[in-house]
């Protein structure tokens, strides 16, 4: 008999709460060998390849490609390679308890959860043997006194599963949804929260919609397919107007883009930002860089070093904010914004205050390459005590950045452009950088931000100190 194991959404990094199944690389009941890539899972920062820990096969794929699931959610059922009894698969699925690992530990077969004691009100013989029902579902139905004769099974071939029985005996409930979208009315239809909200928005009844999700669950796409398309005369003037060519390209947000949108919206709404701005002359820094022989560090590499040393001089800015606590760090872990095809990633130069500019340049080259390839490890982008965002390479003169929580500050750097400055009473025109420091006013005062920029300016204008 095949040995079954639960295949669950893994957890990479302490901040990961969900992942998206980008693609299943093996089909259901297809044999695979140890080391085979089973699936690609997208998180808010990277796409990971999940490899098989041993030979086997998927006896049931539960999660759908393109859908997002929380950490520990059941994605599929594995076997050691042998054929599996559908009843045993049903039992594992019905009794599954979420775990924080990609594979259930050896010996943990995710057994069915023991139901709360219920006084039986019918004998086992009350369910005829001819009805297709799993053993676990039969026991639950008998214990609850449920007549399964009219129950539509969602298992293979119409087999009644434990989930079908649970839904039939559970009191009508609906998730509590809050936000700007309308809350849908209570219904017993098995549907996702988003499907319920979309149905409420478009005044579509969930009853009667055939669900395409696992076990017949109604999904958003099912509801949208049932939304009546208005005739041209019914369209309001507020409807989207296509371009002159008539073509509109609608692109769904990636998992990374959705996470960026959520985190930055929360940061802008919940963090009291204030901004400290300063001009600094960059001619000496650019001259120092030009004198370097061989592989030259980038201007950004010098800025990472300068930020790290300034953070050591003004430790009030080298922090994270966690609720009512301020965490101060002994080293400057500087997160550097890197643009990728999927969105913004902030790999971290750990202990940048201990590294030379050349060492920072080598570290950043590797981090940037892995970031653009989606191969960063969780520890390479999680945490950090400060962020640096430089748009000078795009010709941007000045901008204000949004704080990357839980960090307390972020520095925005524009391009170096020729401007007049006072040089010991003489007017000179030299390249000048425009710096803007965004600070979390819950933990950083204006004086702290001012001292940090003063320290940073001193380092940039006297680059020999770097």
From TrEMBL:
User: What Gene3D superfamilies would the database entry show?
Assistant: 2.40.50.100, Chloramphenicol acetyltransferase-like domain (3.30.559.10), E3-binding domain (4.10.320.10)
Instruction: Offer an example of a GO molecular function term for this protein.
Output: acyltransferase activity
Q: What is its EC number?
A: 2.3.1.-
**Residue ranges of every copy of the Lipoyl-binding domain listed in the record:** 4-79
**GO cellular component term of the entry, any:** pyruvate dehydrogenase complex
One record GO biological process: pyruvate decarboxylation to acetyl-CoA
> Cofactor(s) for this protein?
(R)-lipoate
Residue ranges annotated for the Peripheral subunit-binding (PSBD) domain, each copy included: 132-169, 190-227
Q: Which CDD domains match?
A: lipoyl_domain (cd06849)
Xref: InterPro entries: 2-oxoA_DH_lipoyl-BS, 2-oxoacid_DH_actylTfrase, Biotin_lipoyl, CAT-like_dom_sf, E2/Pdx1, E3-bd_dom_sf, PSBD, Single_hybrid_motif
Keywords for the protein's UniProt record, in alphabetical order: Acyltransferase, Lipoyl, Transferase
As for family, the record states: Belongs to the 2-oxoacid dehydrogenase family.
> How is this protein named in the record?
Dihydrolipoamide acetyltransferase component of pyruvate dehydrogenase complex
